[in-house]
Write a structure and sequence with these properties.
Distance between the termini: 38 Å
Order of helices and strands: HHHHEHEHEEHEHHEE
Strand order of the largest sheet: 3-2-1-4-5-7-6
Shape: globular
CATH architecture: 3-Layer(aba) Sandwich
CATH class: Alpha Beta
Structural class: alpha/beta
């Protein structure tokens, strides 16, 4: 979808998307537990790598800030939606000197080796050019953490719901994810199923 429409959609629904992360028990009761599963995956992998600097692509209201900044990791959060940036900056204020929030889209990721890890949770769902996003993230950091919804009934329902508002939703199978990695000159270090919701994936540059 056009970038302007994408920004408008998430700008208008910033509070709604932010609410998904307010309570894990409530989220699980509503069938949104994978939101926390993929969040925990990204945090655990990042901490295990000993990362010091992280790029949070499509940071939303900043659910990654607390667990990463709490571990002493510096986070740069980017999001194209103004309302999301406002929420993220309020969250970032809780961690002075550790979190920086910028209003920009993934198309403006032009850093090279500026971070140890780049994370995109719930972002590839809506990106029409996933290969380009993954390439940019792979240039910015040696490791990439990302989530992808799986094809199926759940995805079809999302496509109907979001499509009515002009938003595209894309699903990926493991083979699709492996091809994306190869095209971006990365490899899949770990692919973790999230039930019917999809996959959490750790990409990395090939060793040696």
């Amino acid at each position: 979808m056009p970038q302007a429409e994408f920004q408008t959609y998430f700008h208008r629904r910033a509070q709604r998307f932010s609410a998904f992360y307010r309570s894990e028990p409530v989220a699980r009761a509503l069938g949104r537990g994978p939101l926390f599963d993929r969040l925990r995956f990204a945090v655990d992998q990042t901490v295990a790598l000993g990362a010091r600097r992280v790029l949070d692509v499509g940071c939303g209201s900043g659910p990654l800030f607390a667990p990463l900044a709490g571990a002493g990791i510096h986070v740069t959060g980017i999001d194209p939606a103004a309302a999301m940036v406002t929420l993220a900056r309020a969250e970032a204020d809780r961690y002075p000197g550790l979190v920086d929030v910028q209003q920009r889209g993934w198309e403006q990721i032009d850093e090279e080796d500026a971070y140890d890890v780049a994370v995109a949770l719930g972002v590839f769902d809506y990106v029409d050019e996933p290969g380009e996003l993954l390439r940019r993230m792979g240039r910015a950091a040696q490791h990439v953490m990302a989530s992808f919804p799986a094809p199926g009934v759940r995805l079809q329902l999302r496509r109907v719901r979001y499509g009515a508002r002009g938003v595209h939703v894309h699903g990926k199978r493991p083979d699709d994810i492996s091809r994306l990695a190869a095209d971006a000159h990365l490899e899949v270090a770990e692919l973790r199923p999230l039930g019917q919701a999809g996959y959490a994936v750790h990409f990395r540059r090939p060793v040696g």
